[in-house]
Amino acid sequence: MSDNGQDAPPERVVNTYNGWDPLEEVIVGTAFGATKPGHEPAFNAYVRSPQDRLSRAARRPAELIEAAEMQLDNLARVLEQEGVVVRRPTPTDFFTPVRTPTFEVAGQNASACPRDVLLVIGDQIVEATMGMRVRFFEYLPYRELVREYFNRGARWVAAPKPSMADEMYTADYSTQEVGFDADTHPSLTELEPCFDAASFARIGRDIFYQPDVVTNDFGARWLARHLGPEFRVHRARFKDPHPQHIDATMVPLRPGLVMMNPERPALDDTVELFTSNGWEVVEAVPSVSDTIPRPDEVSNWISMNVFNVDEETIICEEQEEPMIKMLETLGFRVIPLPFRDVYRFGGSFHCCTTDIRRRGGLKSYFPKLDG
User: Fold this and answer.
1) pTM (2 decimals)?
2) In sequence order, which ranges of 195-241 are alpha helices (DSSP H)?
3) What is each CA distance from 59 to 36, 49, 98, 110, 304, in whole angstroms?
4) Tell me, what's the pLDDT at 164?
5) How far apart are CA 177 and CA 76, in angstroms?
6) CA angle 63, 69, 73 (to 5 degrees)
7) Per-residue pLDDT tens for 69-110?
8) Separation CA 19–CA 245 (nearest Å)
9) Active-site residue 196, yes or no?
């Protein structure tokens, strides 16, 4: 009870509906314990030569882990200076084998990218199924945090864990002659619900997903039914030979402004849905990785993987000068930070964070869909 005899409002432990409301609490990943995964069926879309299928799990070199962790620690410090509470996953050794009744792998992955594992919508945390065998148990480093959030009042649900049996993956899949197409050449079957959290973009009541090499339509249908009629889940398709996650293809920057990848045009009416509801659509600029060597783990559009502190403030890799200038032209205060050493662990600022609490409520940003 409050001093005036009224019930005090519940603490907002978990609260986020988009990627731009003022950030109050966030999880930043860690590179400690990371493993370079060996080949598995989920990687077939990326195979360039038969030799790729022979790759084996290996520990990441200590010097690469230390360099990445320094940049992740720096990101955490900067966010704290911006007034944000920063949490980190439990350090975990991923160079450990996994064996289940349906698959086995000699090593796992990492916990550098919490965005891929945890989907936060409103006051609930959804643990994604994950689409790769090496990431099956990647939720475990976050369990201590999620358990704490639950005990403080948040909702917590784990999506159905798929078997990841061979039948979940399209047999003998390849993109060497025919590029990925969710309708005619998918890498995943519809045997079971399957999704990574980073395949979804949250825009208030409307949530967009891209069926890709780790997310199928069954997974999106499960999420839509779980969330209920308060939310609208939209399928968006883009021309991409091997898509994985949506945050280097379509990036909402603030209400009314979305950044699209010009090399991956929409194959449906996604752009028209934005423009017909008053959104400005801007084309992203490619990464300087075209001229500066980059690891295979990220694309030349890693420049799009930015992270909002609020509607006016955004974090971008310090060497991505074309993207920084573009964002400044759009009216953002840009915080440039070094992050290239983190790329080989799976992504940039958006991948390596999961916003847990933002100051704001559920809104609709697509008024023509509200009738």
Assistant:
1) 0.95
2) 217-227
3) 6, 23, 15, 10, 29
4) 97
5) 43
6) 150
7) 999 999 999 999 999 999 999 999 999 999 999 999 999 999
8) 15
9) yes
> pLDDT tens-digit profile of 14-42?
999 999 999 999 999 999 999 999 999 99
Which tokens is 114 given?
A: 């919490």
Q: Domains, the chain, ranges and CATH?
A: 23-360 (3.75.10.10)
Task: Tell me the longest C-alpha to C-alpha distance in the chain.
Answer: 72
Rounded (5°) CA angle 25-22-210: 85
Contact 290, 315 (CB under 8 A): no
Q: Cβ atoms within 10 A of the Cβ of 310, count?
A: 17
Write down the catalytic residue from 113, 316, 351, 352.
351
pLDDT per position as a tens digit, 261-286: 999 999 999 999 999 999 999 999 98
Is residue 2 very low, low, confident or very high in pLDDT (cuts 50, 70, 90)? very low
From the list 21, 116, 196, 355, the catalytic residue is 196
Between the CA of residue 113 and those of 57, 92, 347, 351, what are the distances in Å? 19, 13, 7, 5
Cα dihedral 357, 91, 164, 160, rounded to 10, equals -40
Find the catalytic residue in 39, 234, 245, 350.
245
**Coil/strand/helix, residue 225:** helix
Which of these, 124, 251, 160, 241, lies nearest to 200 by C-alpha position?
Answer: 251
Residue type, 131: G
